[in-house]
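Regression check, magnesium ion case 389:
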Amino acid sequence: MTDLGAHRIARIEQGDLVSHYPRMIGRNSHLGSHGTGHASRYAVIHTDGGAAGWGLLRGPLDDGSALIGRAVADLFDPTTGVTDAAANVLDIALHDLAGVLLGQPVYRMLGADGATDVPCYSGAIYMDDLDPEEDPDGTDAVLRNCAQDHDAGYRAFKLKIGRGYRWMTPEAGLERDIAVTRLVREAYPDLPILVDGNNGFTGPDFLTYLDAVRDCGLFWVEEPFQEDRADLAALSEQLRHTSPATLIADGELDPDVPFLLDLAREGLLDVLLMDIVSFGMTAWRRLMPELRGLGVMSSPHAWGDPIKSLYTAQLAARLGDDVTVEAVPGTTDGIDTSGYVLRDGRLHVPDLPGFGIAPPSPSASRAATPGGLGSPHSRHRRPGSPSQP
Ligand SMILES: [Mg+2]
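Current build output:
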């Protein structure tokens, strides 16, 4: 028997986890400014044995009283994830708690025996050429932001495109999308460039964009348009002729998983993107054998909170077939994430129980900590945690 059966849930605390981006993050094809940070709800699960595990919530949680007194083993199986629907919103926190109780990093609990540093990209290159509205910075702003993220250790960039959907005329937007892509390619001739349209193109317009950047060797194209079999078939065919190594990534927004799997079976999708928290780690684990059989890669969506990239990195370290991790640059109040180190475009996952991050300290929750993604501070150990593996 593992420790999971010996620990019962004693209480559940909730709070807001506040993150700060390194700069104002601008628009994507659909949405206005993303601001300078984000706040998300988290829960800390305390057991009667004195252990704690925590993580962002998948959705609203009441006071959690229905779970009080339940053995952790009744809610969670380390080999599969959450086993009781009543605990679904605690998917991330239960993965952390189980890792703590077993004295294992999440990636090892999931069965990893491979590399613990995973490739990642900066997901923070938005349409900053368009702001400030009264006196836009132009394309220099995009290059400046790439340089800032390069200095922080990122070695791949995802560019937001689709300016013609809402912010410019279709023609001017397309022209700017092409110009930005080419400028970043010229500035970083050897680094992977990903582009993300947030479904802001029509199928034909996206093919026009793609043809104009056919020599840029894009790493992947993400959500160019709402998933559509005919449009994806045309995209796939064009890529086959012009840039066969470029991957097609989709499934972030309102994923219809059976439809996505159909598209994947037909060879129209290469990478699936369902969110690491809202779709969930348990659901990803359940899906993974099928994806592997189809030759489809995974890269769970993480935008919003820097800590989501760390969850994703754990899954990626386990799976070995996560093509790259979406990194959300920034720092988070009240927690120490310094076990995770970004170096030369790879994110190192720490050999610490659970996700390797102690629960937020309520008293410190408003104080910014310097230990963000990429800060090579000394590794901490979780107070009161079981012996290290
Ligand atoms: Mg996206």
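Comparison notes: The pocket of magnesium ion is lined by residues 196, 198, 222-223, 252 (CB under 6 Å). The mean pLDDT is 91. No diff flagged against the previous build.
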